[in-house]
Design brief:
Rossmann fold, 5-stranded parallel beta sheet, 11 helices, 250 residues
């Protein structure tokens, strides 16, 4: 598992050293990648290091911890923040809750409690990542599938063939077409086959049967029927109309 990157922000060097030495980051799949002693330094480190977690004291020089979080959230919305404070003040807690801070821990730090906080945080970050990934994953999959279809139009391609080729469930692939493209698999396949056929009809001297075969139809009669249904005319008429139009007789 990839280690989570942690940034420590506290103006007291002893507090930062305590976090580094007294807490077993390795055991919690984390590593401390940087430190900051004031708000401006914290912002710069967040921009530079892109940590997964920021352990932040509220009361730091130049700019408060809450202000740092408010500003850095604009550019880095997925970073998780844990507030560590010496103030058991309800108003601070309220502000932290409004800003959706993951946790609020009081000094002196109970490292067992802190460990539970980090473990819960790891789970939350993992779930967040899983929630964000499917959309990107589905876009990648549908791109690969449509590219495969374009390259194998002359072959007998079906949902079961795609399922075997991509090691996916056929029903999942069918749903992908509806979700990502907005049409069913068969409608999409027919559409790109018709586009291929029209291109061949107007740019080659292949017979209708040969065009049918290269467009994925073993039976040219089935091809002619589908073509007429989608285009309103037969393949032969489509070719004649194109030739008439380009020769100036249309």
């Amino acid at each position: 598992m990839k280690k989570l990157k942690v940034l420590l922000v506290d103006d007291e060097i002893m507090i930062r050293e305590g976090f580094k030495r007294l807490f077993d980051w390795e055991a919690h799949d984390c590593e401390v990648v940087g430190e900051a002693a004031d708000g401006m330094e914290a912002l710069a480190q967040i921009d530079s290091l892109r940590p997964d977690i920021v352990i932040m004291d509220i009361n730091i020089p130049i700019m408060s911890g809450l202000k740092v979080i408010q500003l850095s959230r604009i550019k880095h919305p997925s970073i998780a923040y844990v507030i560590v404070s010496g103030y058991d003040d309800f108003s601070y807690c309220q502000q932290a809750l409004r800003m959706k801070i993951t946790d609020y821990i009081l000094k002196p730090v109970n490292y067992e409690e802190f460990g539970n906080c980090i473990d819960n945080l790891k789970i939350a970050l993992f779930e967040q990542k899983i929630a964000e990934e499917p959309e990107e994953h589905e876009e990648r999959v549908i791109t690969l599938i449509t590219r495969y279809l374009q390259e194998h139009l002359a072959q007998d391609v079906s949902l079961s063939v795609l399922a075997e080729e991509f090691h996916l469930n056929a029903q999942y692939i069918s749903q992908l077409f509806k979700n990502e493209i907005g049409v069913g698999f068969l409608a999409y396949l027919t559409s790109i086959r018709m586009e291929k056929a029209k291109k061949l009809l107007v740019s080659t001297s292949l017979s209708v049967a040969e065009v049918a075969e290269q467009s994925g139809y073993g039976d040219y009669r089935v091809f002619t029927k589908v073509f007429k249904k989608t285009e309103g005319i037969t393949p032969s008429q489509y070719r004649r109309d194109f030739l008439d139009e380009t020769s100036g007789r249309g």
